[in-house]
């Protein structure tokens, strides 16, 4: 394995971690206004992700930093071509972080309701936009021979990308509902399980439709060498199995299956792209790859040493935080947010 491929795998791992971990707290934020109108219960919902949400976002920061250092031309083309979308996503994430800190600073119901809906918007917008961005990675964007993205925002909002955006929104919502069932008790737990059962059918249906459209809109499955490919099949099977776990009230197993579905879907995308990182819809020869967009081998070598040291430390620390805050949250708990 050469260093470019090693870093492609590392960045794939960072995105898998981000989508799995940030996916459930996006889902919790999306479901927040629909879980309860009682302020005490809403605070309990927010506190299920209170110790985790900022740590989960760290995986996105790590992925962005790795792209900047290791594949600078990928980073530059991505941020120029997806500029408005990424700025909107960044503003939503900033507003979401502010909302977590500000909502309980005032007793006014209107004040808290405003910040609750800010958490909803700050979760739903990135969940939608990440799906749109990933679909365009696979389908292709107008990239010329100089590695410049020439399309605008409307080019990114094509039907295939919008389908992927809505699918990711529903998958993350399902993931979040199951997480809430794991972290709450009594009425909140029952409400979360009920929402999870309602979300399963549309999320699974759209996922299957999106996979079918991927056959005609991209070359993803052909590059896997198997059509439709074993990895995406495992992803769908895991998602289908969720309803059986929910019917048995086995929230832990259901959460494990949505985790597998999200992880395997992301693996499928990176496997189908390799060695490309951004597909050119103008000319396949103009696509960005891990070779024509990478830094020098010396830089890759230094970054590899850094990654091998710090990624395990981050994983250990975050695993420790999940263990420390593993208890369920109740409305009678001491609530921070």
Verbal overview:
The chain is 77% helix and 1% strand. It has helices at residues 3-35, 39-49, 53-70, 72-81, 83-102, 109-139, 153-156, 159-183, 186-217, 220-224, 230-247, 251-273, 297-324, and strands at residues 276-278, 288-289. It contains 13 helices and two strands; from the N terminus they run ααααααααααααββα. It has a single domain (3-323), classed as Formate dehydrogenase/DMSO reductase fold (Up-down Bundle), CATH 1.20.1630.10. Strands 1-2 form a two-stranded antiparallel sheet. It is an all-alpha fold and 337 residues long.
Keywords:
337 residues, mainly alpha, Formate dehydrogenase/DMSO reductase fold, two-stranded antiparallel ribbon, 13 helices, 2 strands, 77% helix
How many separate domains make up the residues?
1
CATH fourth-tier homologous superfamily:
Formate dehydrogenase/DMSO reductase domain
Return the CATH class.
Mainly Alpha
Largest sheet: number of strands, sense, barrel closure: 2 strands, antiparallel
Order of helices and strands: HHHHHHHHHHHHEEH
The gross shape turns out to be globular
Query: How helical, in percent, are the residues?
Result: over 70%
- CATH topology-level fold name: Formate dehydrogenase/DMSO reductase fold
Structural class: mainly alpha
Terminal CA distance reads 46 Å
Strand order, main sheet: write it out.
1-2
% residues in beta strands: under 5%
Mean pLDDT: 90
| Count of beta strands | 2
Uncertain regions spanning at least 5 consecutive residues: none
């Amino acid at each position: 394995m050469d260093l470019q491929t090693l870093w492609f795998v590392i960045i794939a791992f960072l995105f898998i971690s981000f989508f799995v971990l940030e996916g459930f707290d996006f889902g919790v934020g999306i479901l927040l206004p629909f879980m309860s109108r009682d302020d005490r219960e809403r605070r309990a919902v927010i506190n299920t992700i209170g110790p985790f949400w900022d740590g989960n976002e760290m995986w996105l920061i790590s992925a962005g930093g790795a792209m900047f250092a290791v594949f600078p031309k990928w980073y530059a083309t991505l941020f120029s071509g997806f500029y408005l979308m990424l700025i909107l996503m960044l503003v939503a994430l900033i507003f979401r972080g502010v909302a977590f800190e500000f909502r309980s600073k005032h007793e006014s119901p209107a004040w808290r309701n405003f910040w609750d809906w800010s958490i909803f918007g700050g979760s739903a917008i990135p969940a939608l936009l990440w799906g749109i961005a990933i679909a365009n990675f696979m389908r292709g964007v107008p990239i010329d021979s100089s590695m410049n993205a020439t399309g605008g925002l409307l080019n990114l909002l094509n039907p295939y990308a919008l389908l992927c955006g809505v699918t990711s929104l529903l998958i993350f919502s399902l993931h979040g509902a199951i997480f809430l069932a794991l972290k709450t008790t009594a009425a909140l737990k029952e409400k979360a399980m009920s929402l999870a059962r309602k979300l399963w059918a549309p999320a699974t249906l759209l996922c299957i439709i999106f996979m079918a459209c991927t056959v005609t809109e991209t070359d993803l499955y052909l590059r896997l060498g198997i059509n439709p490919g074993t990895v995406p099949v495992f992803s769908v099977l895991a998602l289908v199995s969720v309803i059986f776990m929910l019917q048995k009230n086995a929230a832990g197993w259901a959460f494990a299956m949505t985790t597998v579905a999200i992880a395997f879907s992301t693996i499928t995308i990176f496997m189908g792209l390799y060695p490309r990182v951004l597909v050119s819809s103008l000319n396949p020869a103009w696509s960005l790859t891990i070779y024509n967009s990478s830094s020098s081998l010396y830089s890759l070598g230094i970054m590899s040493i850094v990654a091998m040291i710090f990624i395990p430390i981050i994983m250990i620390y975050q695993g420790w935080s999940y263990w420390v805050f593993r208890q369920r949250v109740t409305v009678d708990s001491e609530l921070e947010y």
